[in-house]
Structures are given as C-alpha cells and as structure tokens.
C-alpha cells in the first residue's frame, strides 16, 4: 500500500526545467541520431522529388431560379422548375465524376491525368479547378479541357432532357388522340347496335310503347274476366231450361254444331284477309290462328260427346247455349290476346330498363372523348413550346478564367522542406528520448531519486574508471571524488540535526551498487573532520572491507558475537588516521540471528564508547534480512543508489522494508554518476560543484528534504583500496 502511495506521489510531482534538461542530455545521442536520420531522409526526398506545376481554371455558377427563364408566363415554367440549376457544391461533385475525367483523358490522349482538385471559392458561386502535375502543358490542358467537357456535358444534358420532354409530350398527345377516336367509335357502335339515333327521343318513344301495351293488357284482361263471369251466369240459367222440344233430323242440323261452323268460317275469312296485309308473323294473325285451332278442337270434342238426337232442341235452350259458347269463345280470345300483350309488354319493358345503362355508357363515352381531346391538345401545345425552347437553350455554367501555362513549380520547396524535416527530427528525437526516459525504470538523477523515494539526496559520487583510484586516499585533495565525499559528510552532519548521529548503517537494494566503497570513503572523509571512526564490516556473507583496507578478515565481528574474542582483539587500526576497522570475522551459519542478538546490541554500545561515529557495512536489503535486523540498532541508515543501474521498484521496496522496521532513513547517495557533462559534479579546484556548499534537512516519505547553504570543507587524505560491491 505504501509503495502505491509513493508511486502516486511520484507521478503527481512535475519535473523542473533542469530535470528535463538533464534528461535530454542523457539521451542526447538518441536525439541526435533521430534528428540526423529524419533530416537526411527529408533532404533525400526533397532532392529526388520531381517538380510539380499547378494550373487553375474557374467557372461561374448562376444561382438557382424557380423557372427556366424570367418570363413568368412561360408555359414550361411548371414543367421545368429547377431544371439543370444545381448549387455550386453539387456542381463540384458532378465535375469530379469518372465519365468527365475519362472524356478529358480521351481528348488529351492521356492514360493518366494529373491530380485534379475541384472546390468552391469561399463565399462565392465560383468553382475553382486546380490541376497539379509534373508536365506544365498537360496540367494546363487538363484544366481547360475539363472545364470545356463539363460545360458541354451540362448543355448536352439540358438538350437531352428537353428532347425527352418533347418526345414525351408528343407521345402523350398521340395516346390521348387515339383514345378519343376509340371512344367515338364505341359511341357510334352503340347507336347502331341498339337502334338509338337519338337517345332521348328513343327513350320517350319506348316509354310510350310500354304505356300503350300496359293499357291494352289491362283492357284484354278485364274483357276476359267479364266473359268468364257471364259464362258462369249463363250456365246457371241453362240448368233451368229443358233441352229438347222436337226431333232433329241430323247432327249437322244441331244448332251448336252450326254455331261452331259459322265461327270457324268467319275466322278463316279474317285470316285470309290479314295474311295479305300484315304477313304471317304479325301478332294479330298469331292470335286469330290460335282461336281457329281452339274452335276446331272444341267442335270435334262436341261431336264426339253429343249423341245424334231425333228430337230438336228447345229454342230457348239452344239460344242460351249458343250464347254460352260465344262467351267462351270471346273469353278464350280475350285471354289469348292478354297473354300476347303481356309478352310484348315484357319485351318492351326490358328494353326500357336498358336505357339508364345506355345513357350512363353514352355519357362516359362523350366525357372520355372530350377529356382525351383536351389532353391531346394540351400535350401538342407543350411539344411545340419545348421545340421552341430547344432553339434558345442556355446553361447556368460559364467559364470565366482559362488556365495558363505554369512556368514555376509549386513543389518541392527545398528550403521549407529541409527546415520542416529538421523540426520534425528534433521533435521526434525529443519525443523518443522522453519515451525512453518514461520506460526506463532506473534512477538517473538525484532529483528523480528524491521524487521517487521522498528522501533527500545527500551526495553524488562520480564514476571512477581506474580501479586504483576509487578510494579518496589515493587521489588529489581537489578531485571531484574528494569533493563529493566532503559534501556527503557535510550533508550527513546536517541531516542528523537535532539527533546525535553515532551509528550509521550503509546499505543498498541489490549487490554491486558500491555501498562498501562508499562506506570506506565516508569513513575517511569523517576522519578528515577530526572524528574517530570505526567501520564495521557487517556483511557476514560476502565481506569486503578487509580487502579495501588491506587487513586480515579474521578474527572479527562474528568472533566477538560468539565470545571467542573481545572487541579490542578484533578492532584494528588502518593506514588512515582516526579510522579503525572491525572485519567480518569467521563466516557464520546464521548471520541474521547473530546481528539481531543481544550480543550485537552490547557490541554496538561498546563501539560507541570507542569512537565518535560507527559505520556498518551491511548486505543489500532485498537479498537477505541482515541489514533490516541491524538497522533497528543504529541511529540512521544511508542508502547507496547506483546511477543508471538501480531500479526504482527495488529502491522503493528497500525504503519500505527499512521504514517498517522503525529505522530512520536519512537519505541516499547517488553513486557512479557517469560523466561531467551530466551536470552532477564539476571540477572542484575552483570552488564549483553540484551540491557544493549545501546541506539537507532530512524529510520522510511524505515530506521531501530541504537544501540549505553550507560551507565546504578543505583537506583530503591519501589512501588506497577498491570496492567490488
């Protein structure tokens, strides 16, 4: 959890300009390589790029109108509203159609046309055609030909539209004229087939025929009913009259037979007369023929049913009987006549009922003829007007500027391209450097160490390439290495302000960060200040202090802790004044337990009695627990951080482990700073240096340290030794 908080704090702090400068100095090689690569590529592209020429032609687009001309009475206004009147943006899209470009290529005999750009001049109705390419003549000809082709295309399309409209109007006129003629033919056929020369008069005449037949039918029906009534009455009277009075000599003398014969003779005479005047199919002849047939049938039946009588009929009986026979004949004739009239009435009435349908059909045909003739005339007039329009057609596209032959290329702009490549190279170089820095998990500056750990950076030790010159005893008093340890000594003194610093543990997060060399040099620097210093090699696993000071490694600390020797037996003087060393001693099987024992606590107290300050060189914190165990028994801890090697996660973890053990971590010392160009140290012979004349008031995980001016220390000592850790 603590690590996450520190990470957030780290990212939340902004970098200073100096830190950015240091970062870019560290990555200057990458920046230069990227800059040089981009610049060379830009120069090569500029040099090999073919020259590009530009030609411009312009078109004026008339604004859209709502009729094809300014004459409001033009009959084509409604038909051709907005015809070929497109907005400039629409015209731009139409100019760039593939068929337009194909036609331009065909006219110029060019397979590949130059780059064509079409756009509208801002806040105008002017279309600008821009053509760019490496052939000046082709560029100019392409722009001008494109304008010509599109202008012709617009005019051709306008003519085509008008011709299509003219053909459509002519076709519509013909279709409507044909429909009128067809309707007229149907009307004439109706009049002929239905015998209707004049529909109104024919209807009135037919109505009169129906009325007359209705009257005749009613009359015949009434006569038939009256005859039947009289027959019934006569038959009742006949029943009361005797049938005979005297003999009758023969059947032909029978009055009934004679009456039938008389009627038959009369009907035959009438039929002969009617046949000569009316013809055999007349209604009257049909009726008389039916009556004659019935009389003959009745006569035959009478003769078969009436015996020959010798006595003669009673005249009254005979007379009444004859009247009955006559009435029956009249009734039959009336019924036959009524039936004939009813049939004729049915036929006449059916014809009369057809008249509404014929009238409706008649009216529809007349309306169809009229409307078709009117539409035919309308479309004929439109066709004539369109033909007139074809003779005066115009477009809303007008070329206003022809393209000229370009003489100066627009590209490449060599100077501009080279400057742009240089700028891009610098920006890209800085960006890549920044990216590499963000991806780099190592500590690369004192400021970064302070920002990551929230601890003061107490010293900055330069890189020493020569193996024998890593200890300050072997170098000049005015060397940068000597000055760096003087600054570290001064900053340690002020870091412990308010607390007496008698014991100091020196460690690192991982091996090979230079903690042992730093401990040895710090001991020498403290001795220069007149302090008695004891350096204890508490790295019981891989001790190295005895090699640096060239003493025996045993007996040492482990022998004191197991009570085989006393502290005075193992504490040895060095060839540096005021510096004593307690070597590690015999390798133990349990280093952590020894360092955490009560014996170690007694040894620490004894050392404090014998020296002004005791330095403990311990193993790395992330490998073993030795330094964590021992840190609880000292006044402070100094962390050694290898410049450009120590990972942020490792050093953060080390600080977290030490703080959990209740240790006071005074700060860090940045070891092996690579070069003077990095800005972290300078030549101290003239009194200049990074951290020179400053000390730090210590902070904690939440509050960073504070730099305060201080006075530098003179002096140096001469000694020798190396550090392999």
Quick overview:
Helix 8 packs antiparallel against helix 9, helix 8 packs parallel to helix 10 and helix 13 packs across helix 14. 55% of the residues lie in helices and 12% in strands.
Give a verbal description of the structure.
The protein is an alpha/beta fold and 725 residues long. Among the domains are: 56 residues, MYOD Basic-Helix-Loop-Helix Domain, subunit B (Irregular); 254 residues, Rossmann fold. Helix content is 55%, strand content 12%. The strands form 4 sheets. Strands 7-14-13-8-12-9-11-10 form an 8-stranded mixed sheet, with helices on both faces. A 4-stranded antiparallel sheet has the order 2-3-1-6, covered by helices on one side. Strands 4-5 form a two-stranded antiparallel ribbon. A hairpin with a 5-residue loop joins strand 10 and strand 11. The longest helix has 77 residues. It is elongated and about 200 Å long.
Topology:
Layout: H1 2-12, H2 17-26, H3 28-48, E1 53-61, H4 88-95, H5 98-108, E2 115-120, E3 126-133, H6 136-193, H7 199-238, E4 244-247, H8 255-277, H9 283-305, E5 311-313, H10 315-391, E6 397-401, H11 414-439, H12 446-453, E7 457-462, H13 480-495, E8 503-508, H14 515-528, E9 533-537, H15 545-549, H16 557-561, H17 567-570, E10 572-573, E11 579-582, H18 591-595, H19 598-610, E12 613-617, H20 626-631, E13 636-642, H21 648-660, E14 665-673, E15 694-697, E16 706-709
Parallel strand pairs: 7-14, 8-12, 8-13, 9-11, 9-12, 13-14
Antiparallel strand pairs: 1-3, 1-6, 2-3, 4-5, 10-11, 15-16
């Amino acid at each position: 959890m603590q690590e996450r908080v520190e990470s957030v704090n780290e990212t939340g702090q902004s970098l200073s300009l100096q830190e950015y400068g240091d970062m870019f100095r560290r990555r200057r090689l990458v920046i230069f390589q990227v800059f040089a690569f981009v610049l060379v590529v830009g120069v090569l592209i500029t040099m090999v790029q073919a020259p590009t020429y530009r030609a411009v032609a312009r078109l004026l687009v008339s604004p859209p109108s709502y009729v094809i001309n300014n004459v409001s009475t033009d009959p084509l206004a409604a038909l051709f509203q907005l015809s070929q009147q497109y907005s400039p943006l629409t015209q731009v899209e139409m100019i760039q159609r593939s068929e337009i470009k194909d036609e331009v290529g065909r006219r110029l005999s060019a397979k590949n046309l130059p780059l064509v750009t079409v756009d509208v001049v801002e806040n105008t109705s002017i279309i600008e055609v821009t053509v760019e390419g490496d052939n000046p003549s082709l560029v100019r000809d392409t722009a001008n030909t494109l304008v010509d082709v599109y202008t012709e295309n617009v005019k051709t399309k306008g003519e085509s539209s008008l011709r299509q409209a003219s053909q459509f109007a002519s076709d519509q006129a013909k279709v409507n004229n044909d429909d009128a003629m067809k309707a007229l033919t149907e009307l004439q056929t109706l009049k002929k087939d239905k015998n209707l020369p004049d529909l109104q008069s024919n209807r009135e005449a037919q109505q009169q025929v129906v009325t007359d037949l209705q009257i005749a039918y009613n009359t015949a029906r009434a006569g038939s009913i009256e005859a039947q009534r009289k027959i019934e009455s006569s038959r009742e009277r006949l029943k009361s009259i005797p049938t005979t009075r005297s003999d009758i000599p023969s059947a032909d003398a029978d009055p009934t037979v004679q009456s039938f014969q008389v009627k038959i003779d009369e009907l035959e005479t009438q039929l002969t007369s009617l046949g000569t005047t009316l013809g055999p199919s007349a209604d009257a002849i049909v009726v008389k023929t039916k009556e004659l047939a019935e009389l003959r049938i009745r006569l035959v039946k009478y003769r078969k049913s009436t015996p020959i009588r010798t006595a003669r009929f009673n005249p009254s009986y005979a007379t009444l009987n004859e009247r009955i026979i006559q009435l029956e004949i009249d009734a039959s004739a009336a019924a036959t006549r009524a039936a004939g009239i009813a049939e004729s009435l049915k036929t006449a009435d059916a014809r009369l009922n057809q008249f509404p349908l014929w009238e409706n059909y008649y009216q529809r045909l007349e309306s169809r003829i009229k409307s078709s003739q009117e539409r035919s005339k309308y479309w004929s007039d439109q066709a004539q007007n369109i033909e007139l329009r074809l003779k005066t057609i115009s477009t809303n596209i007008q070329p206003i500027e022809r393209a000229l032959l370009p003489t100066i290329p627009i590209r490449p702009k060599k100077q501009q391209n080279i400057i742009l490549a240089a700028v891009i190279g610098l920006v890209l170089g800085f960006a890549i450097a920044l990216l590499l820095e963000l991806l780099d998990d190592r500590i690369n500056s004192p400021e970064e160490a302070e920002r990551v750990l929230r601890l003061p950076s107490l010293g900055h030790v330069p890189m020493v390439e020569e193996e024998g010159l890593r200890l300050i005893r072997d170098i000049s008093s005015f060397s940068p290495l000597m000055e760096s340890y003087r600054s570290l000594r001064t900053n340690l003194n002020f870091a412990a302000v308010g607390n007496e610093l008698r014991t100091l543990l020196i460690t690192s997060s991982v091996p090979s960060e230079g903690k042992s060399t730093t401990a040895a040099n710090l001991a020498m620097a403290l001795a220069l200040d007149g302090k008695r210093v004891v350096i204890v090699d508490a790295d019981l696993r891989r001790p190295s202090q005895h090699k640096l000071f060239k003493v025996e490694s045993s007996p040492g600390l482990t022998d004191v802790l197991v009570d085989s020797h006393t502290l005075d037996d193992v504490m040895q003087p060095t060839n540096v004044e005021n510096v004593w060393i307690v070597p590690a001693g015999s390798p133990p099987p349990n280093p952590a337990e020894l360092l955490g024992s009560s014996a170690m606590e007694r040894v620490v107290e004894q050392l404090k009695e014998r020296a002004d300050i005791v330095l403990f060189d311990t193993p790395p914190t992330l490998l073993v627990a030795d330094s964590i165990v021992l840190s609880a028994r000292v006044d402070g801890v100094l962390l050694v951080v290898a410049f450009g090697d120590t990972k942020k996660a490792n050093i953060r973890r080390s600080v977290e482990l030490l703080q959990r053990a209740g240790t006071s971590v005074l700060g860090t010392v940045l070891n092996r700073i690579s070069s003077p160009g990095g800005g972290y140290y300078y030549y101290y012979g003239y009194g200049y240096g990074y951290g020179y004349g400053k000390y730090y008031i210590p902070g904690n995980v939440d509050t960073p340290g504070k730099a305060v001016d201080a006075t530098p220390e003179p002096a140096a000592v001469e000694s020798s030794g190396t550090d392999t850790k």
